[in-house]
Each structure stands twice: as C-alpha cells, then as structure tokens.
C-alpha cells in the first residue's frame, strides 16, 4: 500500500470531526506545491515532504496535531502555531472539535516551510 493510500485509509477510518480536519490539512499540503510528497512514518503518521520533512499530522482523541519540523524558523504572521512554542525547532498547530482550518494561511505557512527546506 502506498503512503497516500494509507493516509486515505486513516482519514476514512476517522468518521468524526478529526477525519474532516485531517482531510482539509492534507488538501492544503497538496495545494501548496505540486511536488510535495506524502509519506507514512512512525507506525502510522502522515507526513508531507519536499527536500525533507515539512510536517507530520496525528489524530489524537481530543485534537488533530500538525507539527512542522522547522516551525521555529518560520514566520507565522497569521498566528497558526499554538503548541510547542517554547522549543527551538518544532512548532505545532492543535485543532480541536469545532475549529476551522484557515486554508489560505496554512498554505502560505507550508510554502514558507518548503522555502526553508530548499535553503537549508
């Protein structure tokens, strides 16, 4: 099974709000740059990569978490990052039931992550 098929299966198995949020997050990664690839790592985590890992997503019981590998190095004018703010590398976005994905802002953040990976 390909990583994309595994992500499809994960989303299909999340029949509550988490599946919808994860689907929207995935859509943003794939729209940000056509060369972004989907991977399946760490025994069940969707990841998106271009010139290295951009981010990993996990559906927890109470939230969907998107963790950017080099989030501390990225400008975040839309204030999407709301978790892991004290670290010197990772930054995360925690989405709870009822939260909306700010798709335009997330796409811009993903594009900043791509630009960072290209420069490092």
Please give the structural blueprint.
Blueprint: H1 3-13, H2 17-32, E1 37-41, E2 45-49, E3 53-59, E4 64-68, E5 91-95, H3 103-119
Antiparallel strand pairs: 1-2, 2-3, 3-4, 4-5
Helix pairs in contact: 1-2, 2-3
Describe this structure in words.
This protein is of the alpha+beta class. The chain has a single domain, classed as Aspartate Aminotransferase, domain 1, CATH 3.90.1150. The protein is 37% helix and 22% strand. The protein is built from 3 helices and 5 strands. The protein has a 5-stranded antiparallel beta sheet. Strand 3 (53-59) and strand 4 (64-68) form a beta hairpin. The model has no long low-confidence stretch (mean pLDDT 96).
In summary, what is this structure?
With 120 residues, this protein is α+β, with helices and mostly antiparallel strands. It has 3 helices and 5 strands.
């Amino acid at each position: 099974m390909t990583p994309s098929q595994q992500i499809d299966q994960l989303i299909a198995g999340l029949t509550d709000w988490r599946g919808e949020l994860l689907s929207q997050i995935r859509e943003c990664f794939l729209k940000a740059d056509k060369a972004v690839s989907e991977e399946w790592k760490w025994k069940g985590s969707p990841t998106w990569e271009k010139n290295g890992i951009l981010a990993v997503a996990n559906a927890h019981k109470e939230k969907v978490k998107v963790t950017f590998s080099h989030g501390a190095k990225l400008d975040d004018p839309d204030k999407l990052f709301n978790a892991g703010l004290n670290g010197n590398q990772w930054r995360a976005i925690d989405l709870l039931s009822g939260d909306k994905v700010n798709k335009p802002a997330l796409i811009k953040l993903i594009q900043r992550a791509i630009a960072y990976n290209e420069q490092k």
